[in-house]
Design brief:
CATH superfamily of the largest domain: Thiamin diphosphate (ThDP)-binding fold, Pyr/PP domains
Largest sheet: 8 strands, mixed
Number of helices: 13
Low-confidence stretches: none
CATH topology of the largest domain: Rossmann fold
Shape: globular
CATH architecture of the largest domain: 3-Layer(aba) Sandwich
CATH class of the largest domain: Alpha Beta
Helix content: 25-40%
Structural class: alpha/beta
Strand content: 15-25%
């Protein structure tokens, strides 16, 4: 198709369709509403179903049911809607339900500035469920990455049987850029692992090793399928046995945490001899790239690490990048949420500098250089 002038929300919808998404449910909310509009148009064209639900709670309920019935599922919202998603995100986690959740972040808290951008939902997304189990979250910085990471989110959801978040923001969602989606290299599509139809017994949460991802059987298919929000065993029957409950929690945790290195998507721009490292993600990584370029033009050696995977934390990539570094700078469009994760990995004696603001405007390259001591 060649180059197109697309907004991020359309790229997200197109990425979902490339991943063969055939179900969408959502509720209008600025600045994510156009994803709903695109999916209402695109999904029926392939014989799928797209629904504008009565609210965010219903949207997630529809998505869970559709995913367990065999559909590849997407929903999209912004911060206030994510709050309403939270209980059903817990249900999807407990039920090992593959689905993709797009959060086009805006300035909060509460209604905040609905038409202004921010990246303030980083920690909220990580700890969205009661129980605090691990989640997967990706963060795009460009329109092309919004397309690519949405596609990759579907692969991760299917591979690990879990909800996966894409944390974009208003600046990406409703900004247009020239992009050639066909030129973006994508990995092979991951298909859902299903049990054989001739198997007599189906255990919805069957595993031998804690890191195993149980195969699925679609609701309404060849097997009796059980699903519950309460603590249960591998058969999905409720249990009060502490040992069984702990084993299930260990399984939910291990299947994600043990695969953290495999999920880690980062962009490295290391300069030999650099003692300063800028770690960034999302839209601010574009300001960071300009800051790195300008600092180098001034004769200052600076390295850059851009994180596309936020959760689970790509610890190996971060600790490797911190090797030999005397100062690490973390710019954010919030009050320093992800910097906490970088700081706890920073060696003793290495200076940590958080550069952040939350007034609806972007962190500029100049602010990164000034606050980071690069001028």
């Amino acid at each position: 198709m060649g180059r197109e002038f697309l907004e991020g929300n359309e790229a997200i919808a197109r990425g979902a369709m490339k991943a063969k998404c055939d179900f969408f449910a959502g509720y209008p909310i600025t600045p994510a509403s156009s994803i709903l509009h695109y999916m209402l148009e695109l999904v029926p064209q392939i014989g799928g179903t797209a629904i504008q639900a009565e609210d965010e709670i219903a949207s997630m309920g529809f998505c869970i049911a559709a995913a367990m019935a065999g559909r590849k599922v997407l929903t999209a919202t912004s911060g206030p809607g994510l709050s309403l998603y939270s209980e059903n995100v817990g249900l999807a986690t407990m039920g090992e339900t593959p689905l993709v959740i797009i959060n086009i972040q805006r300035q909060g808290p509460a209604t905040g500035s609905a038409t202004k951008g921010a990246e303030g939902d980083i920690q909220f997304t990580r700890w969205i469920t009661s129980g605090g189990l691990p989640i997967i979250a990706l963060s795009p910085a460009t329109i092309g990455e919004a397309y690519e990471l949405t596609y990759r989110a579907f692969n991760l959801a299917e591979q690990y049987r879990t909800p996966v978040f894409v944390l974009a923001n208003k600046e990406i969602g409703v900004t247009r850029e020239s992009v050639d989606l066909d030129a973006i290299e994508l990995p092979p599509l991951v298909e859902r692992k299903r049990v054989n139809s001739d198997e007599q017994e189906y255990l919805p949460h069957k595993f031998e090793q804690l890191t195993d991802v149980p195969p699925m059987s679609d609701f309404g298919g060849d097997h009796i399928a059980r699903y519950t929000t309460s603590t249960h065993d591998q058969t999905a029957y409720l249990t009060t046995k502490p040992a069984v409950i702990q084993e299930m929690i260990d399984h939910y945790t291990a299947k994600i945490d043990e695969a953290a290195d495999d999920m880690a998507l980062v962009k490295e721009d290391f300069q030999a001899g650099a003692e300063t490292l800028i770690v960034s993600y999302g839209i601010i990584s574009r300001s960071a790239a300009v800051a790195v370029k300008e600092a180098r033009a001034r004769g200052t050696k600076v390295s850059s690490l851009v994180l596309q995977t936020l959760w689970p934390v790509p610890k190996k990539a971060i600790t490797t990048a911190l090797n030999g570094i005397k100062k690490v700078i973390v710019p954010e469009m919030n009050m320093g949420q992800y910097g906490l994760e970088i700081e706890r990995l920073t060696p003793s004696g290495t200076e940590f500098v958080g550069v952040h603001k939350m007034n609806t405007t972007l962190v500029s390259p100049g602010m990164i250089m000034e606050k980071g001591g690069l001028l």
